[in-house]
Write a structure and sequence with these properties.
Elements: H1 3-10, H2 14-21, H3 29-38, H4 43-55, H5 70-81, E1 84-89, H6 100-110, H7 119-132, E2 143-149, H8 150-154, H9 160-174, E3 179-184, E4 197-201, E5 212-216, E6 221-223, H10 227-243, H11 247-259
Parallel strand pairs: 1-2, 2-3
Antiparallel strand pairs: 1-4, 4-5, 5-6
Helix pairs in contact: 1-2, 6-7, 9-11
């Protein structure tokens, strides 16, 4: 749905949609209800999201930076509050596992597309990405299940040294008790393959469709409020997890590719 479509269906002006998307203004409870109605959010999920929004002010470390979209702000807050996070990654190492140099290389490379991205904005985005990693530091109450496609370990961003250190960080983090890292091998038969996504669980509810999925890329980002779609992504993650390597087998394949980046 485009910004103009959203404005028309909510009865807002296009400029209001733009200001909300870029977090320049907040919206009233009435506007929130209209938004949730438009996306047919169920009553149970509506209650949970409204309660979450009321209880989670923007952390100070996220303020005074370049304008961020409402979707990104929501992602950052929900990532912090999630009790269990499941992530499937097809292209690159996810932000909370990236080294500083790997993150900077990715963001710097994006300047080839986003020609308006300044050097200071690159630094701010790198700093934000690194600050997110504090959720992995003790004390940690959440659990993380992260599946990497094997191609993520091979695809080179930056120098051999950057890649070698990035894979070393994956090995280190995978030893933490609250993180389970999986690798989906390129060899062998696989039943499904889909775009990257993240599943957040905000409580103890583990019934099908109870997670809050997030699908994001460099050019778009969205939460999925449809519980049927959420249940589908949960099943997809379970299938991918069952096909992936874990523990010592995952470590072995990471070390194998790390040796290719010896410097």
């Amino acid at each position: 749905m485009t910004g103009d479509d959203l404005a028309r269906q909510l009865g807002w002006s296009p400029s209001k949609v733009s200001r909300v998307e870029n977090a320049r203004i907040s919206i009233s409870q009435d506007d929130t209800d209209k938004f949730l109605d438009l996306f047919e959010v169920t009553e149970s999920r509506r209650t949970r999201l409204i309660k979450l929004a009321a209880s989670s002010p923007t952390p100070p470390s996220w303020r005074h930076r370049e304008p961020m979209s409402q979707s990104l702000l929501a992602f950052l807050e929900i990532e912090t509050l999630s009790t269990s996070t499941r992530q499937w990654c097809t292209s690159f190492v996810p932000g909370i596992l990236q080294t500083e140099e790997y993150a900077k290389t990715l963001i710097e490379n994006w300047r080839l597309v986003d020609v308006g991205l300044t050097a200071s904005q690159v630094e701010e985005r790198v700093a934000l990405r690194l600050s997110r990693q504090s959720i992995l530091s003790p004390p940690v109450s959440a659990t993380y299940y992260i599946i990497l496609d094997e191609s993520v370990l091979i695809r080179r961003f930056g120098s051999k040294r950057i890649m070698h250190q990035q894979l070393a960080k994956l090995l280190d983090i995978s030893l933490q008790s609250h993180v389970e890292l999986f690798v989906l091998p390129l060899g062998g038969a696989h039943g499904i393959l889909d775009e990257s996504f993240t599943l957040f669980n905000l409580g103890d509810d583990e019934t099908p469709g109870s997670s809050l999925p997030y699908i994001g890329s460099n050019t778009s980002e969205q939460f999925v409020f449809d519980e049927l779609r959420a249940a589908t992504l949960e099943r997809e993650f379970a299938i991918l997890r069952n096909s992936a390597l874990s523990g010592k087998e995952a470590h072995k394949i990471i070390r194998y590719h790390q040796r290719a980046f010896d410097f």
